[in-house]
Amino acid sequence: METRQQGLTFFSAILALIATLVVIQLWLVAAALDAALANATSVLVPIMLASGALFLLNAGLLWWVRSFDARLRQWGPRG
């Protein structure tokens, strides 16, 4: 990043994306519970796969944000 402000803006945008993906994942959990209570078991596997994919995406983004933050702290204040 050229400046610390640009890095922080990018950092905030990634965190907003993570929050959005978590909300979608919670919606999938609610849909899975609704399907399980209605005995619609055919949709549970696709919901489980989608939720697992979102979990992996969130974990990867969170790992990237943490490493980005560590790099930003290592470079020190630049403006």
- Which regions have little confidence, pLDDT < 50, spanning 5+ residues? none
DSSP helix fraction: over 70%
Assembly of the depicted chains = single chain
Total beta-strand segments = 0
Overall geometry: elongated
Overall pLDDT, averaged? Answer: 87
What's the number of domains?
Answer: 1
What amount of the residues lies in strands? under 5%
Helix-strand topology string: HH
Terminus-to-terminus distance: 11 Å
Largest sheet: none
Number of helices: 2
User: Which structural class do you get from the secondary structure elements?
Assistant: mainly alpha
Rg over CA atoms, rounded to whole Å, is: 18 Å
Q: How would you describe what is shown here?
A:
By secondary structure, this protein is mainly alpha-helical. It has one domain. Helices cover 84% and strands 0% of the residues. It contains two helices and no strands. Helix 1 runs antiparallel to helix 2. The longest helix is centred in the first third of the chain and has 34 residues, at 4-37. It is elongated, with a radius of gyration of 18 Å. The chain starts with a helix and ends with a helix. The mean pLDDT is 87.
Summarize the structure.
Helices cover 84% and strands 0% of the residues. It is mostly helical and 79 residues long.
